[in-house]
Amino acid sequence: MRFHFKTSYDHDIRLFPDWWKFSLYATLVLVMLALPWIFQGVFGGRTAGFYLGEMTNVLIWAVAGLGLMLLTGTTGQVSLGHSAFMALGCFLCVNFLDAGMPFLLAFVLAGIVTGLVGAVIAVPALKLHGVYLSIFTLALAILADDLVVILEHWTGGVNGRMAPDFTLFGASMNRWANPQGWYFLALGTAIAVTLLYRNLLRSPLGRAFAAVRDSEISAQAMGIDVARTKTLAFGLSCAFAGLGGALMGFFAGAFNNETFNFLISIQLLMMIIIGGLGFIHGAFLGAAVIAFLPQALSMATDFMGSASIPGLEVGVFGAILIAFILFEPMGLYGRWLKLRVWLELFPFARRDMFRRQKSYLKTERLR
Amino acid sequence: MEVLQLLLSGLANGCVYGLVALGFVLIYKATEAVNFAQGDFMMLGAYVMIGLVNPQFMGMNFWLAVPVALLIMAALGYLLDLTVLRHMFGQSQTAVVILTIALGFVIRFAAGLIWGHEPQSLHSPLRLGDVRLGGVVLSLADIAVIVVTLLMTLALWQFFQRTKPGLAMQAASQNQMAAYYMGIPVKRVQGAVWALAGVVACVAGILYASKGTVDISSGFIGIKAFAAAVIGGFGSLPGALMGGLIVGVIEPFAARYLPAGYSQIAPYALLIIVLVFRPHGLFAQVRTKKV
Hints:
By secondary structure, chain A is mainly α. In chain A, about 70% of the residues lie in helices and about 5% in strands.
């Protein structure tokens, strides 16, 4: 166990608490950067391309997941409607490309505009608490599905749109011809979003997010403008989701209203809970689960020698989620944290160190 | 005449939404949790009934099967509370919301495994015959839906207002600790309310299956029922029925008078408008939270 003797207030908000942590994350980034060549060495040829595609998928889900994590994990507002903002980001990006913008500009601008739209929508949504907000956002997601069909001129309606081929830094970005390029695009976005997220958490705004999550009334008493904080959280979260959505649609090759069905936002929410609500790591772990689960299941059914069972994926996903909420509400990353503390303190760790606080419920209804 | 026809068929649909919404409100009223799986409960109730009645399954007499199906669903509701939801006692509402969404996925999967993915219809005596009133045609099932829903809402409303168990349920949600002090077995009361919600869902399912076909994604009408419950103000039983009727009536009128594509968004647009202007529904029961 390492002890940090803090000698200045800056210690509390450093990006990395010590050199050991820094070198861990630096190694992780280096390994991720070298992954195309590692895969090439291990699997070779086309298989490497396939696994690289899977990794890209994980990273894309993680970007969208980070968006929802900022809202749900850090600010404590549950949204069931992030698929709407993913769709918005994706269709904005396509239309910006049509207008002749270079990809990078179109991509970033799509994220920014999605964020602005999200912030505007957040203003009425702010008055809502808890369950009402979830239902409001669920309605948004369903509306978005229908709006994509109605706004055929920009979205291609039910037929959807093909992702146009675009070039980035002189390289043609086609998923099949250039899996490495796509991988680096997703990795770059994921790293950028993670850094932004991490830096937000270190700023007064990030601490305001956490304060609003823990108690709105206390946050207000501390002088935090709750409405402004929630709006910013919603906007930023939507911006990340928009980036993730743009990547997801383009990576899929073709997208229509079904690509951004409201089930996607529920899946996104489940993903961050399985990963670990409130942790940046959780978004990545959850994304890995969601991206590899279908493969694992199809391998399992192959192994059992049975035909594929329709709906198995979703059913198993639901069951895993129930197990997590009942037995490990802190998710995969929480489990790892507990394991680490147990190892660090061995043999002095005690079960009650992670006891969940329970409280008696009181209604907000008065009649 | 056309307007009247649209209105009546809307009312019949709205009653089904209202029944599912009643299930939401019941659970919300008594446990302060929101059951996102109520629509899937309804679907399950319909399938249990189909499994009992339809000739390719058990082929029971319809009227004999009704109490059996109700009992099965009550038992399922109670078991669900016993095995899963009771562990959530004392935890945040959000966790329960997500848990019930996951439960919905699992229920849908299980129903698909047992009864298959093709749409099925219930062999119901309510399916026979129409009733003509002037120029308006109403099927027997529509009338049954309206009558049963009204009776059910009235009964549940009175149950919550008048009877001891009903008051105990309300007390258990309003302040758990105080309810314990008053000698209310809060957990058992919550189990009872989940069983009750199972019964309501089963009634809704039987009526829904009598009106048309059921498949495993029928549970998604739960989302419309949500709109109904929210419009009515979560926590109010007559409000839930009212909201259900509003949503049900808006749908056929939007389909008739709005351009194609816009009609199915009408209930959700209404939901959003209501939430923006009356954040706690038309029959609000919430005032500003105090510390």
